[in-house]
């Protein structure tokens, strides 16, 4: 069964024609961290324990937690598929609407799902799942509230895939014993093809995840590139500044055609476009791909353009509205 996701640029091209597409259907940074040339051993040898330790230490510094609480994995999506199969099955409460892969993975693993509009409604669940900040509406919850929720549930999964520009939201520095944090690398650093992410949890849980993931679950180039990118705080500061300003610029552009901001994060914005199908179609005819959602005929999500050329094309497309 096909699951609803952004990034389906092949489908867009099949419908609207091949060409120079701008894919704004995801929340992936379109100004990626610049990859330098790698040493041959990253490509030709199996990943080393030293390379994994280096990435773990750099990541722990970025997340503001202990290295013993950090496990590199082959993308946050890999952890989303794996963790529900490691925990005892029961009732999972999920904030909705949210990233749909959590519910799909839990159902596949035999969990019963309860969708909740508020954090307060999740108390008593065997597992609570919160995406913070939330995808697609950008709702956010402070760590103190999530810590309180952890005390009212069996386990708590917090997906912080879009939290890199917002360290104040992260639960990592004060991790409850029963909490599991998921972090993406590909979104903020713009290198989704690397398939790198992290699980932050108690060491016993990390050992269980690592055993289930198997040896060499993260490839050598990902270990090397991830460590270098996450240590480049100057680049990260510039990326946060750019997206802070660019997200406001995108809001102004959307409002100029009558769209109403619903929310978002540094890396994407969500709008009430009135007729989302028509709005997506209009932009697609200019080879700009955006994201609709099956549960709303009004919401349209746009990622942040990454260059002046992309901004110019988007502005020109909006002039046709």
Automatic annotation (TrEMBL):
It is an enzyme of class 4 (lyase). Its cofactor is pyridoxal 5'-phosphate. Its EC number is 4.1.1.81. Pathway: Cofactor biosynthesis; adenosylcobalamin biosynthesis. Residues 37-317 form the Aminotransferase class I/classII large domain. Keywords: Cobalamin biosynthesis, Lyase, Pyridoxal phosphate. It comes from the Bacteria. It holds the Pfam family Aminotran_1_2. The keyword Lyase applies. GO terms for biological process: cobalamin biosynthetic process. InterPro entries: Aminotransferase_I/II_large, CobD, NHTrfase_class1_PyrdxlP-BS, PyrdxlP-dep_Trfase, PyrdxlP-dep_Trfase_major, PyrdxlP-dep_Trfase_small. GO terms for molecular function: pyridoxal phosphate binding; threonine-phosphate decarboxylase activity. It catalyses: O-phospho-L-threonine + H(+) = (R)-1-aminopropan-2-yl phosphate + CO2. Decarboxylates L-threonine-O-3-phosphate to yield (R)-1-amino-2-propanol O-2-phosphate, the precursor for the linkage between the nucleotide loop and the corrin ring in cobalamin. This is threonine-phosphate decarboxylase. It comes from Paracoccus saliphilus. The lineage of its organism: Bacteria, Pseudomonadati, Pseudomonadota, Alphaproteobacteria, Rhodobacterales.
């Amino acid at each position: 069964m096909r699951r609803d996701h952004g990034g389906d640029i092949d489908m867009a091209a099949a419908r609207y024609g091949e060409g120079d597409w701008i894919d704004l259907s995801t929340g992936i940074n379109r100004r990626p961290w610049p990859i330098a040339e790698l040493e041959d051993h990253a490509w030709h040898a199996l990943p080393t324990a030293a390379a994994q330790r280096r990435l773990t230490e750099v990541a722990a510094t970025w997340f503001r937690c202990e290295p013993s609480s950090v496990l590199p994995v082959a993308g946050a999506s890999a952890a989303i598929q794996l963790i529900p199969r490691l925990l005892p099955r029961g009732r999972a409460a999920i904030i909705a609407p949210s990233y749909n892969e959590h519910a799909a993975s839990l159902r596949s693993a035999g969990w019963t799902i309860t969708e909740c509009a508020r954090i307060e409604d999740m108390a008593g669940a065997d597992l609570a799942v919160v995406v913070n900040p939330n995808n697609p509406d950008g709702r956010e919850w402070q760590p103190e509230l999530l810590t309180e929720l952890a005390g009212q549930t069996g386990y708590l999964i917090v997906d912080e895939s879009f939290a890199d520009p917002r360290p104040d939201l992260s639960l990592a520095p004060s991790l409850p014993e029963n909490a599991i944090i998921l972090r993406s690398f590909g979104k903020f650093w713009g290198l989704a093809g690397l398939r790198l992410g992290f699980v932050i949890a108690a060491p016993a849980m990390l050992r269980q995840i690592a055993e289930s993931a198997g040896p060499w679950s993260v490839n050598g180039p990902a270990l090397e590139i991830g460590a270098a990118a996450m240590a480049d705080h100057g680049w990260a500061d510039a990326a946060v500044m750019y997206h802070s300003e660019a997200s406001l610029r995108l809001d102004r552009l959307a409002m100029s055609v009558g769209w109403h901001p619903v929310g978002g994060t540094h890396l994407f914005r969500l709008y009430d476009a009135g007729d989302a199908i028509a709005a997506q179609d209009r932009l697609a005819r200019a080879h700009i791909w955006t994201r609709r959602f099956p549960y709303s005929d009004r919401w349209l999500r746009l990622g942040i353009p990454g260059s002046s050329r992309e901004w110019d094309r988007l502005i020109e497309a909006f002039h046709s509205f």
